[in-house]
Amino acid sequence: AGVPSPGMVLCASNADHTAVEFVIPPEGAKIGERVEFEGLKGDAVPENKLAKKKMLEKLAPDLKTDADGVVVWKGIKSVTSAGACVASKGMKD
Question: What is the pTM of this model?
Answer without folding.
Answer: 0.83
